[in-house]
Design brief:
two-stranded antiparallel sheet; 161 residues; 7% strand
């Protein structure tokens, strides 16, 4: 990263297939030291949400849908909170959570079809959501224990495949 602001530079935050464009150098620097970062966000969207990492627990669509809807509802509540704050950092978090909600919506739509392939539906969800989750896992303001729990969840899920 640039150590100091340069004229004409803007950045994009790419999390998988989602992109947030025109982020200033100052905002990127503020992300690293955001003292208002909600340290409960990572466990709320990932560690406590087994739907994103627990392998082979949700074997039927009907078992998956409630967890997906709960995660999506949580994302919608957080989006509203961040949008109300309105500062650039909050809007980045809102955008990331909106994209995570879209992943949930896509998975819900797929799993509501007759005879869906649950492994494919959840696999697509996890593949599309993981870059967003990775952003939050690696956020420098995370609590060390929450970071460790999330990393261990990722390692567990990867080793169980």
């Amino acid at each position: 990263m640039l150590k100091k602001g340069e004229q004409g530079w803007s950045f994009s935050l790419v999390t998988g297939k989602f992109k947030i464009e025109d982020i200033s150098h100052e905002v990127l620097q503020n992300l690293k030291s955001d003292s208002y970062y909600d340290t409960e966000l990572l466990p709320s969207i990932f560690t406590f949400r087994e739907i994103l990492w627990q392998p082979d627990v949700f074997t039927e669509a009907a078992m998956s849908l409630p967890s997906l809807r709960i995660l999506n509802a949580f994302c919608q509540e957080e989006i509203a909170k961040y949008e109300m704050l309105g500062d650039e950092l909050s809007l980045i978090y809102a955008s990331l959570l909106r994209n995570l909600g879209r992943c949930c919506d896509d998975s819900i739509s797929y799993l509501e079809k007759s005879r869906p392939d649950v492994k494919r539906g959840l696999g697509d969800l996890r593949t599309n959501a993981f870059p967003i989750i990775q952003f939050f896992i690696n956020h420098p303001q995370n609590r060390v224990d929450y970071h460790r729990d999330a990393v261990n969840s990722v390692c567990t899920e990867t080793n169980d495949r």
